[in-house]
Amino acid sequence: MSDTIRELLAFGADDATALIAPEGASLDYSGLRRVVAALGREMSALGVSASDRVAISVPNGSIAAITFLASACHAAAAPLNPKYRESEFEFYLKDLTPKLLIVSADSGDAVLEAAKTVGVAVATITGSLGELTLGRASTADSAAGDGPGANDAGLLLHTSGTTSRPKVVPISQRNLARSADNIAASLALTSADRSLNVMPLFHIHGLLAGLLAPLSVGATVVATAGFDAFAFFNQLSTFAPTYYTAVPTMHQMVIDRGQRHLEAAAAAKLRFIRSSSASLPSSVLEQLEALFVAPVVEAYGMTEATHQMCANPLPPGKRKPRSVGLPTGIELAVLDESGVAVAPQATGQVAIKGATVVASYQDNPQATEEAFRGGWFLTGDEGYLDDDGYLYLTGRLKELINRGGEKISPLEVDEALLRHESVAQAVTFAVAHKKLGEDVAAGVVLHPDAQVTERELKDFLSLTLAAFKVPRSIVFLDELPKGATGKLQRIGLAERLGIGPW
Assuming Cys at both sites, which of 28, 306, 442, 493 could form a disulfide with 428, CB separation 3.0 to 4.6 Å? Predict the structure, then answer.
């Protein structure tokens, strides 16, 4: 079992394919280890040591993957969304205090101006897939050092900061290696597998389930430029992946395009499809399985757990619709408000502990104290365990809608809306109300050429939902508001859409 990213990369056979770029270039494990070591020597020549941080702003793809691996092998990698604005780059660079910022020729001016303002040294990564350089020629007498130890930071990511200042999450080398092992084991990954990574490489989902987990068993990663619904089925045909992992909104777009690509879907022969980072509506799971004739595995993850905490088993194991599955390599409990574990079927806060759970937040003792209680990390998610130990999520505690004392899970309303034949996507959210405190609203995206009125949708919901759960307002949108990783943004959505207060 690996304890560091450097050890993890040793699992691939030298002549096996490690990375494939969408343009067709590929790199085997021997070449991957060689270019990672060369970049490490160049980082050392630039003054980077194992205890330093290396920020990364490189567009998604094979170069971003190698830049992350090299940075994490020789220091602590801090990948940033290359689409940030200059002010956002300034915030994150000040917060991370990196020794070096790595960019590419197409990273844009915003990050360079921010680096100049903050005073961070910049290196540009150039060259072909197997001959990448930071502009410091490697020599025989230059060395990259021993690299970080198991307890040293390997990755730094910020929480989303939806309702407060984003928190820095230092993820250790051991956290990363153990999480990759856990994910690979839960998915029964082998060297014969091929991951089509469509997730961003500045987010824990793509870095772990799309990249590190397959590399940990010597499998192949197709490092795409990110999710593109129009290119997706061509990528299936060209690269013949055995799986892909994505967020529910991406899966919904795959389904929407799928009717035009039924032959490609049938020929894909995916071993499984994985979904994580948000709750997957049952209707989406059913449509995906029908489209690809492959099992859909729903998983549950978060940054502070180094991604995956639970997953539904692959066949012949039992997969349960609406459940995020069984714990994978961690301990999990559902706690009441006093921190006591509740019985099966009782709702409470999901708490975890284990080798993939981070030790603390960076320089934020208050947040650390609030999140860690009695040896448990409190996830902020509400849910319950069934009699078989499968976890069901009922929503984020901060996203639950409190309508005059009635607690409403937005996920339940989402599910009900998606059962209507005209609704392709849905997001339910709270709107401030002067008397009730909060009331319910929803946004929907319709299928192409579908027509339905707000009144018809409300009447439809009234057939299955209590009256207080039916949204007071349903707005029709061209697309749902999503974050950089494709996750739905519920908190603050009413203000962004100009709805309420009522």
Answer: 442
pLDDT in tens, 458-471: 999 999 888 889 99
Distance of CA 283 to the CA centre of its chain: 21
Specify the pLDDT at position 160.
63
- CB-based contact 259:431 (threshold 8 Å): no
Q: State residue 33's pLDDT score.
A: 97
- Tell me how far apart the alpha carbons of residues 487 and 21 are, in angstroms, rounded to a whole number: 25
Q: Hey, is 157 helix, strand or coil?
A: strand
Domains of the chain, start order? 29-172 (3.40.50.980), 401-497 (3.30.300.30)
Helices assigned H by DSSP within 401-464: 410-418, 454-462
Q: Break the chain down into helix, strand, coil percent, rounded to 5.
A: 30, 25, 40
Q: What is the maximal distance between C-alpha atoms in the chain?
A: 75
Is 431:387 a contact under the CB 8 Å cutoff? no
Measured from the Cβ of residue 168, the count of other Cβ atoms closer than 10 Å reads 18
- The first and second tokens of residue 242, run together, are 């055995």
Hey, how many other C-beta atoms are within 10 angstroms of the C-beta on 115?
Answer: 22
What is the C-alpha separation between 69 and 9, in angstroms, rounded?
9
Tokens of 250: 């991406």
- Upstream peptide bond of 316 is cis (omega within 30 degrees of 0): yes
DSSP assignment letter at 488: B
221-232 pLDDT, tens per residue?
Answer: 999 999 999 999
CA distance 421 to 453: 13
Structure tokens at 49: 């040591």
377 Cβ neighbours under 8 A, 6+ residues apart: 304, 305, 351, 352, 353, 357, 358, 371
Question: What residues of the chain score a pLDDT lower than 50?
Answer: 140, 162-163
pLDDT of residue 162: 46
Residue 188, amino acid: A
pLDDT in tens, 277-311: 877 888 899 999 999 999 999 999 999 999 999 99
Mean pLDDT of the chain: 92
Burial of 401 (0-12, 13-18, 19+ CB in 10 A): buried
What's residue 163's pLDDT? 46
For 405-450, list the strands marked E by DSSP. 406-408, 423-433, 437-446
Alpha-carbon span 210 to 243, nearest angstrom: 9
Tokens of 467: 């009256």
The answer to whether 61 and 20 have CB atoms below 8 angstroms apart is no
- The tokens for 501 are 């207060």
Q: 437: which residues sit within 8 A by CB, 6+ positions away?
A: 402, 403, 404
How far apart (Å, rounded) are the C-alpha atoms in residues 457 and 471?
Answer: 10
Decide if 390 contacts 297 (C-beta within 8 A).
Answer: no
Distance between CA atoms of residues 367 and 28, nearest Å: 42
